[in-house]
Amino acid sequence: MPEKFGWQWFAIGSAFFAGLTAILGKVGVAEINSNLATLIRTLVILAMTALLITLRGEWEPLDKLSGRGTFFLCLSGLATGLSWLCYYRALQMAEASRVAPIDKLSVAFVILLAWLFLGEPMTWRVLLGGALVIAGVLILATK
Q1: Does 32 share its domain with 87?
Q2: What is the pTM (predicted TM-score) of this model?
Q3: Domain extent at residue 89
Q4: Same domain, 12 and 46
Q5: Geometric angle at alpha carbon 43, from 41 and 45, rounded to 5°
Q6: With 37 labelled, which of 20, 84, 124, 138 sits at a CA distance of 20 to 30 A?
Q7: 1 found inside a domain
Q8: CA torsion, points 63, 61, 38, 143, in degrees to nearest 10?
Q9: pLDDT in tens, the chain (143 residues)
Q10: Cα separation, 130 vs 117, whole angstroms
Q11: What gap in Å lies between CA 111 and CA 44, rounded to an integer?
């Protein structure tokens, strides 16, 4: 099925909503324990995603799911959960404008891990871009 919008629009949407997440999360964790806040956020995501899958008719029988794909999605879910727990705890302890840039070091980690485990090319553009991300994080997150 052809996508109405290109991947770039979804990536921009992801970045925008991630930014909004930091601001809304900072307000929320000011009044609620960061671990409980993560649970509440996760339940909302679960309900929202289940509704979307239902509305789009995308449910599939469990026996049709790839075992390998499901395993790696479960590992990804564990990584996401740990990331969110750390992120909300950091938001509880520091300014959102300092926490969010450090969180974006994930870009540098993705570059490195994609090269190591997925065999993605490490070109001069990728290296330069990763270095600029790291430089930006250092500028924004340090006093």
Answers
A1: yes
A2: 0.86
A3: 7-94
A4: yes
A5: 70
A6: 138
A7: no
A8: 70
A9: 457 778 999 999 999 999 999 999 999 999 999 999 999 999 999 999 999 999 999 999 999 999 999 999 999 999 999 999 999 999 999 999 999 999 999 999 999 999 999 999 999 999 999 999 999 999 998 87
A10: 17
A11: 30
